[in-house]
Fold each of these.
Amino acid sequence: MTTACTTGMAPTYASSAANNSLAGRIDALPSSAGLWRFITLLALGGFFELYDLFETGYISSGLLAAGIFHTGSAGVFGIADQAAFASATFLGLFVGASLLAPYADRFGRRLTFMCALMWYGIFSLLMAFQQSAEMIILFRFLVGIGLGVELVTIDTYLSEWVPTHLRSRAFAFSFFIQFLSVPAVALMSWWLVPQTILSLEGWRWVVIAGAVCSLVIWFIRKNLPESARWLAQQGRHQEAHRVLSAMEKRCGITPGADFPQDDAAAQLPKKGRFSEIWAPAYRKRTLMLVVMNFFQAIGFFGFGNWLPALLSGKGTTVTHSLLYAFFITLAYPLGSLICSRYADKFENKWQIVMTSLMTVVFGTLFALLNNPVLLIICGFLITYSNAWLTFSYHAYQTEIFPTHIRARAVGFCYSFSRLSTVFSSILIGLILQYAGSQGVIVFIVLSMLMVMLSVGIYGPKTRGIDLENI
């Protein structure tokens, strides 16, 4: 994996006197095995977050078969329990991203990161043993809170540790690791959901597997270093120098000389305020990201979470739709891995626009096709474009805010993607019921057009620019 990501990059050395600033030393980190191992450790947490996120659509059939979930007005809230389950997930994500993710700016990336992973693992495990739709939906909401904090913190953590020239490539590789979870949960659901093992329904084993493995990863990642940029911004100069020196050793180079006390990273306020994301310098960026997140989530999760149902609407059986979905979801990790070869060659904003256009084109074709082979090919291409879009916008939104408000700003903007999905999950269920899978695809296509317009017109350029200068 390291070879695929490191070829073509000439190493530079942190001991060079050309630029001894904190940003300069981070930018001088070579594309080494040590750096990619660090990125992989971060991504492993995201693996189980996305595993849990995407299981929403796959385990619902098992919950229905077990008689726990009901369709239509027989559901807990007078709507299909699958829709309520998905909405509870994203409502929890909204709460976590908007209200709790800012703690990463206050208490640090590492501590917030580890607490969120533990929270997710414990409540996910508890959810697997609930017997009623009400309790499963409640625990799903609590799981979503941990997911919301975790995903925002991973992004800020990663952007602050990776050299400028590797930022987009690092996000692509990180999402390659994370997206391996999508075919994993699809395959496990196809295999386990129809079965009962040790008196436990298959859907419970799908949930238990993700929860237990995430808790194992928690122990593996306890030794991750804090963000040097965050430490410097907090005035903890010697700690920042120490963790940065350790990272340089991890990457196989001689640690650089201590950066100046008046380094740009240390000049930022120790504590950010919510009002700062609406300051004239950042107001347009905040609004642009709010619109982008709101509508991209409809396209991404609308297709991903409802893929088996959309395929069933095309006339396939539940078993076949899950199997087709498995092949289609292979595009998530493969797309990210392929894109890691050229992710740093283009502006992130134009990658977001182009991938949204791909979803519009192939989404329209998906709505018109009925042939199983063509459906899989078209679904694969939609998923490929969604994978490309995901790492592009995750990298992009962490680049355009300063360190002291980065988690707060990203969490606020990102939370709108979760808020939109709370309602769109219910809305897509209604559209699927009354207008069929073609109506759902039209809804997704219109949403992606909004993404293209907002980012294409109002998004700033970030390629090749230090975080401190964007």
Note: Confidence is low (pLDDT under 50) at residues 1-18.
Amino acid sequence: MRISQLEGRRVALWGWGREGRAAWRVLRAREAGEAKPLTVFCLAEEAVEIRALDDPALFPETEVTAERLSAFDIVIKSPGISPYGAEAQAAAAQGTCFIGGTALWFAEHAGDDGIAAGTICITGTKGKSTTTALLAHLLRAAGHRTALAGNIGLPLLEVLGPQPAPEFWAIELSSYQTRDVADSGVRPDIAVVLNVFPEHLDWHGSQARYAADKLALVTAARPRIAVLNAADPQLAALALPASEVHWFNRADGWHLRGDDLYRGERLVLDTTTVPLPGRHNRGNLCAVLTAIEAAGIDAAPLAAAAQGFRPLPNRLQTLGERDGIVYVNDSISTTPHASLAALDCFRSQRVAILLGGHDRGLDWTEFAARMREHAPAAVVTMGANGPRIHALLAPLAQAGGFALAQAQNMEAAMVRARELLGGQGVVLLSPGAPSFGAYRDYVARGRHFAELAGFDPGAISAIPGLGIA
């Protein structure tokens, strides 16, 4: 649905975060330059300073109900709001159309062939932000004007404007947004899927629906080229007749052998020289190079440019050392799989890991099983699901595998972690759970961790390279 198709319709914005504000600015600009006015209202969980474009008295309250939603033709919802909730489902049954800002952006960029030219979309349960930023970094190193936007921290609607268009769009998409791309009816030029693990079950309702929504980027959206991880069983089993499929992590393409990067049988680079935290992130360099090749660019000469990449904050980010303790901020970690990957990076060191946060029902049994053989020195649980994780790990800790403690909050968890390490080792924040409830988002959680560790939170939060360059 193009923005022009909203003319004369009753439109609501649901959510007033950065995505909602970006949509509001786009609609205001459209209304200012068009003869047909838009009737736009904001529905939010909290009051906001906003007025409708023509009749602010019609719906002065902000409470979101099925009845209020069904009063609108179209609801532009923020990504964090699930379309599977009872209110949205009831309104949809009454004919209300729900779309996201991502769908609007893609509709505005459709070519005559139905493809959004130059778009390289990246999704995956783990590693998508770093992979997207690395893609933009390498494309820019090759001299291509490139946009870095999407879920990484710059809504696509914020770069919907008159500036000279980039040659490529490096776009990170969450599972909240991948279905939006499919619903837009526009085909991505290139779509990359890194991996699929259980995640966001509270938003999607089930693991099956999460996987279906995540994979919609390559199944329902039908990209011109799909770039897939051959090492992921769900991805390896996909059949995509509408797309040309390029594989990474396969012997005939870009893959790792130990820490060495290969293109087929050709050794290209020792990845230990690349500033990417964790072997799993260095492995995603294979995805980036495969996507670059899919865009028609010789990728091999660009591999070395990865050595100049600046790692992103809150992703296995080493803050520094204080009194013999090294502090590592992996606040982006919201699944047990991510916490396990973080621990793998520090297997040779004494680690106290901080686990827990918002409880959305993810299964921690695989994490517990791994603790039988590869446990850290200490585990400190915290947050709403902390007691559940603690109870699962307690029998293993009692068997002498590792120290285990509970804490009410981050500050108490840091104190216990330092005590259990005895003044030497790594305190690793890799919660394996979202920050909801205790913090506004994972960035605020990472900033608090840095502050408690004695570092300047303002110096560790900026994502380099956002926008068009």
Note: The first strand starts at residue 10 and ends at 14.
Amino acid sequence: MITLDDTRVIGEARVLAGLDQNLQQHLLTHGPLPELSREDYVRLCEAVGLRGRGGAAFPVALKLQDLPARGVEAVVVNGSESEPVSRKDRLLLTRAPHLVLDGAVGLAHALRAPHVLIAVHDTAAATSLRQALMERDDRLAIEVLDTPGRFVAGEARAVLSALEGGAAVPPGRRVLPTRKGYHQRPTFLSNVETFAQLAVLARLRSRGFSSTGLISEPGTQLLTVDGAVQRPGVIETPTGVPLTTVLEYAGAEPGPVLLGGYHGRWLAQTDGVLLQRPEVSAGIVLALGSSTCPLGEVTRVAEWLRGQSAGQCGPCVFGLASLVDDFARLTIGDPQGWHDAHRHLGLIPGRGACAHPDGTARFLTSALEVFDDDVQLHLTGRGCGRPVLGVLGGTR
């Protein structure tokens, strides 16, 4: 295991190789970026089964193939990492900006896209990117643009709206950016780590890239590990690494684990769980430990998620508010809160303007299943006897 500040590597460092380097040092570490065609990128992504490293985990080759042969307007790097506990993309933008830029610029040249736009809300990340650009001559129009730091502002269509000067909220219509993206023109948009992985793949090609990780999805992945752990931070691991290995390296306390962040799912048992997409699509592993009140933690996060709503559809405006009330009543032992929570969780999925209400419902449904014993204790009116320590964040 390699350790650098709050970063760790299990196995071989790839995207975390050469942090805090200038352009010359970066090229000595990674080598020159080869010039590849669109067809080259498609073949490479197909060969290694590369998936996007944001929440959707969509196959990159399919996204590339959905773009028209000509007329791609822009390549957009979505750096709007707005979940309080997620740090992997901000770490790359701040400490490995050249690797991210390599992935975006190389793909933009292959697609003949005239613009590279990098959406970011973190000041340190934006500064690092702008300093890196001063060292480069990429023969492209590259802009680093500030976007709001709200949770739903990181949704792809919300990012595009913000880049065009509009509100950073997802529109009601679900149109793919590959068809109508930046200024209603075909656009390739993905998250920060995806571009870093593309830069690694372009250099290593499929055989070198596939020397580690799963056969079905080789390579490495970045995980933000936090919660009840002794060593929180970002870990680079081979795909398919056992969850127990990651928890051991982070010094996690025994207890349930939230996989995938605030739109993820709870696990009561971690033995035999392998970390791969789509299960760990957002790259977040949160250990709960055993000293805090699970229901209180879940309610705290639900309240934060309610406050992050775009406020443009009923499932978010009314549904999430009802769920927060349901869980608050359940926490103090009100049986009607339990019944109302189940009823509302069945009404929300599939009806929102974006994935936010669905993700929140998934998180809460999973909590009711995994913490059933704790729920029963609260329904007695006596509670579980544990304080709410804020292990999962939710108000930062």
Note: The two ends are 30 Å apart (CA to CA).
Amino acid sequence: MHNPSTPLVQTQQGSLLGLAEDNIHIWRGIPFAAPPVGALRWRSPQPVARWTGVREAQTFSAASWQNIDYCRELGGGDPGRFSEDCLYLNVWAPAVRTQPLPVMVWLHGGGFTIGAGSLPPYDGQQLAKRGVIVVTVNYRLGHLGCFAHPALAGEEGERVCNFGLLDQIAALKWVQDNIAAFGGDSDNVTLFGESAGARSVLSLLASPKANGLFHKAIIQSGYTLPDTPLDAALAQGEALAAHFGLSNPTAEQLRALPADAFWPLEGSLKPGPVPVCGDAVLPHPMLETFFTARQHPLPMMVGSNSDEASVMAVFGVDLAGQIQKLRQERRLGLGLIKLLYPGVKDDEELGRQVCRDMAFTTLGYVVMQAQQRIGQPCWRYWFDYVAEAEHQTYLNGAWHGNEVPYVFDTLSQVEPTRDYVNENDLAFSAQVADYWVNFARHASADDDTLPGPVRWPASVKGRDRLLRIGLNKLRGFKVENRFMRARLALFRRVMRHHVTLD
């Protein structure tokens, strides 16, 4: 097998020179599609032009246009410079590779409006040291990544408006074509992501255009918000054009708008944190696909955190106010809520738990049941670890996104945890990262148990099992049966009712 001494690789597009750090080879800013600018804005990603000579791949590319302050505060760090020319990916690989290695492709979160594959929590070095190839991906964000308008209809022979999802699909195709040159096994690709990245994974599991491009999936803190219907997306596109003074615009007029004009939009013009359903990329709503068990058949891991409601304030959700609304909901009355959440009397706390479970926890249960219906394994988890120095600050548990630096084993590299994590926290993080790599290496329909500190069994047909990671902020792991079963079964029925009505 190829055993490179320098990080020089030959891709189908040309030669790339990376850099070496601590026995890991790194290539940054690799183009996986043509720049989506000018006439290519709001079009499917096009192939990269070949280059001659050696292209340096040692610096991260620009990220898609976004709110830099928002990303610094909530998205994982400083995304650097911005450009509409943003379709690049990054690769980490062990310097010595004697056989094809499992590949882990990461899709970042950020509500489809912020983030980048280059952010510090997503540094792939520690995972690569465990014997996998790590790929992190940029994709178009905001209105550049998801946009519908009548003037754009029919340009490609089919309706397309989920351009960010198409970017992710193009990156997966690049992996299929090129990852062997980096030492990766193109027949063992795990697609994983958090929040909007997890929602992207779910969407690709439902997309006919992504079938066969990956072989395992990890869904971290995916959420149950319904996709935006195409007609609503078209109406928003027309309102956006009117906002810029364009009445009955041509596609050329829309594409002439400045690339940095979209991300500051607020109110009804602000893009939602979900894809559009009804185009060729996502013909049917993602939730409907899982309720009817028509997802791509492959092994999955799915889970969420104990304080996912921490993200609700970002979207202006009044947690106590949600309980007031639920009191008036005929199908989900106050008495039933009290029965499901015994001992929780404060509306704020009750709202925190109910919103967490309806928006996040229930999704893992939905995915598990969909997997059982098609005979595919599903590993479920509940992440509840908080670094020891944070116990007095984060009393409600692990907040939205908290698991990411544990998964990548980057606690000691990112703000603010690098300033206070201790040896226990770092040891725990290493065990979490081991589980994720073991999934990429071992998960299959024939082997439904992952090795680790405790053996982690999948929820196969007839078995509702879940791995608790953290055990109420304590350092440990425990397999539980029928976790929150009564709550999740009820919320699933309520969700299914509304999906059916739609």
Note: The chain has a mean pLDDT of 93.
